[in-house]
Specification:
The complex is a heterodimer.
Chain A: E1 3-5, E2 10-14, E3 19-21, E4 24-26, E5 33-38, E6 44-50, E7 56-58, E8 64-68, E9 73-78, E10 87-95, E11 100-103, E12 107-112
Parallel strand pairs in A: 2-12
Antiparallel strand pairs in A: 1-4, 3-9, 5-6, 5-10, 7-8, 8-9, 10-11, 10-12
Chain B: E1 5-7, E2 10-13, E3 19-24, E4 31-38, E5 42-50, E6 53-57, E7 64-68, E8 74-78, E9 87-94, E10 107-108, E11 112-116
Parallel strand pairs in B: 2-11
Antiparallel strand pairs in B: 1-3, 3-8, 4-5, 4-9, 5-6, 7-8, 9-10, 9-11
Classes of the chains: A mainly beta, B mainly beta.
Chain lengths: 113, 117
């Protein structure tokens, strides 16, 4: 069965600093990977996805992620964080047993002024 | 294009009652999935419907059920509510499922916050 691990439960960065959120997955076949963001009291918004091809994918709001098969990782990055990026971030892998997503536990990002 | 809508947004029920939550997918989307989000268990898949048929179900008791209508709108029902059912219930919709089994993005609604007292 597929699984996703986000090792960091909380991360605090200063505004303007770079950001990397870690995601490791376990999946037997070619993974289809996603990053979502959730602001307080809101649903999930898709930031980016990896299906195939270029291992560096660009998303919305200046985010990017790099797929590394050898490390089973799909880390999310942003070169300069804005205060509005404070939210919870979820990595997910799509399961081929139906149209379902398996999510990691999430990383809560706090941004210091 | 309007996003996924869920009603109601907030709900308070007592133990033993039942509840029905509603989800209207994005126009043209025929796959609807439901997820439960709690602080302790995180985001967990409940079930997925496509063309009025449940295609996949997560590891939840039979008290959790759902259905999908011909217009792709979906409802989920929880019977005999327990305190542990307090959660944010999220609905997500996807485009028509392709024959090549490639996944499509899931677009989430704002959720229904259910509190069981």
């Amino acid at each position: 069965a597929q699984s996703v691990t986000q090792p960091d439960i909380h991360i605090t960065v200063s505004e303007g600093a770079s950001l990397e959120l870690r995601c490791n997955y376990s999946y037997g076949a070619t993974p289809y990977l996603f990053w979502y963001v959730q602001s307080p009291g809101q649903g999930l918004q898709l930031l980016l996805k990896y299906f195939s091809g270029d291992t560096l994918v660009q998303g919305i709001k200046g985010f990017e992620a790099e797929f590394k098969r050898s490390q089973s990782s799909f880390n999310l990055r942003k070169p300069s964080v804005h205060w509005s990026d404070a939210a919870e971030y979820f990595c997910a892998v799509w399961g081929n047993a139906g149209n379902m997503l398996t999510f990691g536990g999430g990383t809560r990002l706090m941004v210091k002024p | 294009k309007a996003g996924v809508t869920q009603t109601p947004r907030y709900l308070i029920k007592t133990r033993g009652q039942q509840v029905t939550l509603s989800c209207s997918p994005i126009s043209g989307h025929r796959s609807v999935s439901w997820y439960q989000q709690t602080p302790g268990q995180g985001l967990q898949f409940l079930f997925e419907y496509f063309s009025e048929t449940q295609r996949n179900k997560g590891n939840f008791p039979g008290r959790f059920s759902g259905r999908q209508f011909s217009n792709s709108r979906s409802e989920m029902n929880v019977s005999t509510l327990e305190l542990g059912d307090s959660a944010l219930y999220l609905c997500a919709s996807s485009l028509l499922w392709g024959g090549n089994e490639l996944p499509y993005e899931q677009y989430f609604g704002p959720g229904t916050r259910l509190t069981v007292t």
